Amino acid sequence: MGVERGGGCAPRARDSGTYLSKENILITTILRGASTPQIASTAFPEASPQSLAGPFTYHFTRISRNSKTGPMAVTTTSANSCPPDCGFRHNGCYAESGPLALHWRAVSAGVRGSTFEELLAQIRTLRRGALWRHNQAGDLTPCAPGAIDARQLTRLAMANRGRRGFTYTHYRPTQANRAAVRNANELGFTVNLSAQTLAQADAYAALGTAPVVVVLPVGTTKATKTPEGRMVVVCPASVGNTDCLNCGICQQRDRAAIVGFPAHGAGARRVQAIFFEGKLS
User: Fold this and answer.
1) Is the pTM of this model over 0.85?
2) Which residue has the higher pLDDT, 208 or 10?
């Protein structure tokens, strides 16, 4: 299957999956050589045009201890992977508070994690048919601000072949980003488009690019519909009926339903406000 063109970024001399390979080597050296690594600051890392260019750090957890995901493999990508215009960034993102935030800060600081090449190697060790989640925190790696790195995403999808990986992205569905996401889904790696309101979920679903998820008000337990009549089912793991490992709906690329996630975490009320006000990023 050919890769769709239009990744939105200029070709790189070497497709290493990062921009600054020397700096990534430095991060790996710090990780392996430091006897007592310390996080320089407890403040959440600020993104900037420079930091968006890399380096990016990736952490692989073979068995998650998160009760919602269940004992499945999950990954975490450094915070500079997130789109700078995400409406939830510093505005209610669940990963910016609680135990996950501590882990994410360490990954973002380069204290934990490794290179993209090592991430791919870890993914290839998963058993055939294994369900796993990419990015419990973080997003798809960009090649420029706002642009998903299509080449790297394709390599990730290829490493996933025979397995059931899935993830979510808050990157705007530009023509180039849609092409990258569509190609990954066709290769068997499920990328869900994340919407902030029901109206935006309708707009994303109408694109026909990928399955869609959306945030919902705090405490939502019953299915609802979008303004255009699309069904929104509440994530079963969010209401305690099961966990991701035993559900797998977010990995189903051809599903008709939109999956809704009730706002949660310390910033849940801010996320809910975006949902009700309809103020999109």
Assistant:
1) no
2) 208
